[in-house]
């Protein structure tokens, strides 16, 4: 792996040195993610079944019986909790990188990590952000349609969205609010979970380092966020069947992105 010059942190800055990364690094990370996935594909597909089920459960809980208005926010929100589902995959990539055993059971070695309390704390924060996004999406829907408006079918709801002023307003406002949630999540998690797993630090240091990666590589990190969102959306159609492939590839690729964006300790 080629290494770009790192950007030293000042005495006041928390965390390790950051490297400049570009589009070529993102492509290389995806290729490395595919290679990791191909090494143990069936194990990773099983792990990632938890991801859509968790999102679906939260969506049903937030929406009550009328889940149709939250189908798109639910799918879009998968990217918000993706780093949580990918934690075992980071461990697999880390072990493969070091030439260690990387079987299905080894993925759960993360449960023995000294940084487990920090990992759980950051994971809880992401779940709160995901729940807040679903509540916000529901609030926008109620603001436009009222709490008594019930969608009767997917076709009727889709027609309402694309043929009425309220529908276009729902799409516009929902996407704008969702973008805000996505940017916050991307900034605090682009490298935070791999950093915790690798260096056993604290939540504050991990999030601060992640934000610094984004500030030093704004265009590249935003492009990465768009790539993740596009691939998750593509994997969600139809009926989420592509997610057991898309999610592990992205999870492994995120580990390699961390390796390229953050200089090693003492490096």
From TrEMBL:
The keyword Phosphoprotein does not apply. It comes from the Bacteria. Keywords: Membrane, Transmembrane, Transmembrane helix. The chain crosses the membrane at residues 44-64, 70-90, 115-136, 142-164, 176-197, 221-250. This is Conserved hypothetical membrane protein. It comes from Aurantimonas manganoxydans (strain ATCC BAA-1229 / DSM 21871 / SI85-9A1). The lineage of its organism: Bacteria, Pseudomonadati, Pseudomonadota, Alphaproteobacteria, Hyphomicrobiales.
């Amino acid at each position: 792996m080629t290494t770009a010059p790192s950007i030293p942190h000042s005495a006041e800055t928390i965390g390790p040195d950051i490297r400049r990364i570009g589009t070529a690094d993102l492509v290389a990370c995806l290729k490395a993610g595919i290679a990791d996935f191909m090494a143990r594909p069936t194990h990773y597909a099983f792990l990632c079944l938890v991801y859509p089920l968790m999102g679906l459960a939260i969506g049903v809980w937030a929406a009550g019986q009328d889940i149709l208005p939250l189908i798109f926010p639910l799918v879009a929100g998968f990217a918000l909790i993706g780093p949580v589902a990918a934690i075992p995959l980071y461990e697999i990539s880390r072990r493969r990188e070091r030439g260690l055993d990387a079987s299905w059971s080894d993925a759960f070695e993360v449960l023995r990590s000294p940084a487990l309390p920090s990992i759980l704390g950051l994971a809880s924060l992401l779940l709160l952000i995901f729940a807040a996004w679903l509540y916000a999406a529901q609030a926008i829907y109620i603001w436009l349609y009222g709490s008594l408006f019930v969608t009767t079918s997917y076709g009727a709801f889709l027609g309402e969205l694309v043929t009425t002023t309220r529908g276009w307003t729902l799409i516009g406002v929902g996407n704008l609010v969702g973008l805000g949630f996505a940017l916050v999540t991307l900034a605090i998690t682009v490298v935070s979970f791999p950093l915790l797993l690798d260096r056993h630090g604290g939540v504050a240091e991990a999030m601060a380092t992640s934000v610094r990666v984004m500030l030093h590589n704004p265009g590249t990190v935003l492009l990465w966020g768009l790539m993740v969102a596009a691939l998750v959306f593509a994997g969600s159609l139809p009926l989420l069947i592509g997610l057991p492939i898309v999610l592990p590839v992205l999870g492994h690729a995120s580990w390699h992105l961390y390796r390229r964006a953050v200089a090693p300790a003492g490096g």
